[in-house]
Amino acid sequence: MEFLHAQLAVLQRKLSWVSVAPVNWKGYVQAFSWTVTLFESYLLLRQYPLYSKTEPPAALAGHFKPEVFAKSQAYGRDKARFSLVSGIFKQCLDSALLHYGLYAWTWSLAGTTIAKLGYTPEYEITQSVFFTGFLVLLSSIPTLPFSIYQTFVLEEKHGFNKTTPKTFVLDILKSYLLSAIIGGPFLAAFLYIFKWAGDRFVPWLMGFMISFQMIMVVIYPTIIQPFFNKLSPLSAGDLRTRIEGLATKLKFPLTHLYEIDGSKRSSHSNAYFFGLPWSKHIVIFDTLIKESKPEEVEAVLAHELGHWYYLHPTKLMAVSQLHMFAILAAFPAFLHAPPLLRSFDFPKEVAAQPPTLIAFLLFQMLLTPFEAVIGIGMNAISRRFEWQADQFACDIQEIVGESEGKGMGDMGERLGQALVTLHVKNLSTVWVDWLYSAYHHSHPTLTERLKALEGLKARRIKRE
Predict the structure, then answer these.
(1) Coiled-coil intervals in this record (predicted)?
(2) pTM of the entire structure?
(3) Which of 259, 296, 298, 304 is catalytic?
């Protein structure tokens, strides 16, 4: 532990200039954030002409009816226009909030509020919790019309919206309530560790973050998810038999198998698993069950279990922890940097002893361009994992053994058909610009996956 703290101290000495240099940090954040927004707009403009194509890629020509492909292209165009306008609007809003000192004003508002409740400025954590609540409300209200438009106009136009106005409003209220119940105590504990551990907070905060993630894995399906969706045991039948048999053959620690009422809000479909290493739960959207054959849903789950088999969630979590460690390791220099807060219009008395939350928030803003680059790297890792999970589904008969895997030799073909069905039903875009995909997509395109599945099939036939 001492070695770790010694290395972190070396890093802080190299960053010590941050605490005294009169840098125009706000100007840099404005430039960084606009650069990222303009780059994302450029990617949308690269992608947009592809929505004018009148035929799908040759590999998909037999899977898309002309009218369905036309609907897919129209849906993609509308989403691209919405993303372009909403992205620029959000950036203009964020830029205005920075320019006019909203963060400093909100911190002052939080201080005034707790003073009326009998708390003095020494109660920094209390003020930070109120500051976060006010900031969330003030920043979310201007973007609410975009959420309404996306749900009740864009998604409604293309036949996906199932959300009623009542459900929409209740979802927002539930989100605020859960943020207060869970987010408030989490933020308080997060900030308390900073105060308690001093500049040696990194290992303690890392331990806290990992523990919190483990707790959320347990309480999310049992406490949080029911606030929004109903989880019901999957009915007995062919699909349940197939999935339980698959889990048994792979020694997957299946505890519960659920069907979720995703159709309550949208016609889009999905499936996923979650849980602790010794207790896993599989959740299948009712829309997926309705739109796909049992053998296709089984293939989708075979792909998902491939992620478990190769420890992909654990590996992604490890990468995310390394990412968090790098952020926390560099943060102390910015935690003790009055010029940083002064650059964002905070008064001298606040900047003299920077509140932890404010310093951390501003520090994260400075990381905007780096986070964009890291996002591309994370997408590349995720796509590699998707290839491996597809290959797992194709090779599942060999993995579980010939006797146990009887009848699974065509799992790759079934997966390919399931992917096509999902793309057709979801009107997913099939013409994708490579740079747009690299930046935005955590999964390979449908054309790429089908081509790879065909290659895996040919290789298997050759081996046989």
Answers:
(1) none
(2) 0.88
(3) 304
